[in-house]
Amino acid sequence: MALRLTAVFCLSVMFVTVRLASEHGVHVVESLFYRQALALPVVLIWVAMAGGLQTIRTRRIRVHASRMMLGLTGMLLNFLSYILLPPAEAATIGFTMPIFGTILSALILREATGIHRWSAVLIGFVGVLVMIRPDAGHFPLQGVAVAIAAALVTASVSLVLRELGRTEAAGVVVFWFTALSMIPLGVAMPFVAQMHDATTWGLLLMIGLFGGIAQLCLTTALRWGPVSVVLPMDYSAIIWTTLLGVAIGEDWPMATTWIGATLIVASGLYIAWREHVRARQSRIGQGRVSPAVPLPD
């Protein structure tokens, strides 16, 4: 739990720093490039200490390439959402990722999805509507659309990661995502790269440093704790992004943001709990767990 909280804090700092860097004239592709380039040495050291560099060998490079393109697209959209929206609102819309994950699992993986999770999906979308209040024009619709697209793409990445996780260790997945992403980013950089002052270079260094630490803590947390316990820590991002946003001069979130966030978080937590229940029922069905108490269907 502590590792996941650390990861979420680092991600919040990274996203808010991306917003600050944009205000200093940094192109979003530059932020992406330095995020990955500065994280790559950290990932290599981690892999070398965990099992040696020989462990990065893979026979599924095409799947890793697909994961890279989806992951890079999701990261781009997430960066843009924090540039276009106040940090607290961008983080809150990002919490819809489990909602889209449920929808995609039902449509693509044909997973059985009952009334409980569909109800949670509906409540989550109501929360989005309450927060953004489309009729009031509080937030740019372009930013809202980008944030929702970011959550959708991130949910798609989770499906690919589920497939890769069957054969690949976490270090292998993180390494190939980081390394392969340098190819398209390296091609794009000459068109957007520019000189910056010392303050801006410091912001770019923070993006890479906090992003790399977050990535390692996210992965390690799932090795040391059950998913049902670890993942709810992600919702602490609303606290960090709110405080960081206020610290850089953003307004305190409106009441509708907190109401909408409550509905979205409740929806995500309920979906996570249902996933835990289904996984436990599956283990009981396979004779791997003894049902100490009756489980809801």
Structure characteristics:
12 helices; 76% helix; disordered C terminus; 297 residues; 0% strand
Provide a count of the helices. Answer: 12
Summarize the main sheet.
Answer: none
Output the radius of gyration. 19 Å
DSSP helix fraction: over 70%
Number of strands: 0
Shape, principal axes of CA atoms: globular
Q: Which structural class should the secondary elements be placed in?
A: mainly alpha
Order of helices and strands: HHHHHHHHHHHH
Outline:
The protein has 297 residues and is an all-alpha fold.
Description:
The structure is a single chain. By secondary structure, the chain is mainly α. The chain has one domain (2-112, 141-252). It is built from twelve helices and no strands. It has helices at residues 2-23, 28-50, 61-84, 87-94, 97-107, 115-132, 141-164, 170-192, 198-224, 227-230, 237-247, 255-285. Mean pLDDT is 83; it is low at 289-297.
Write the layout of secondary structure elements.
Elements: H1 2-23, H2 28-50, H3 61-84, H4 87-94, H5 97-107, H6 115-132, H7 141-164, H8 170-192, H9 198-224, H10 227-230, H11 237-247, H12 255-285
Helix pairs in contact: 1-3, 1-9, 1-11, 2-3, 2-8, 2-9, 3-4, 3-7, 3-8, 4-11, 4-12, 5-6, 5-7, 5-12, 6-12
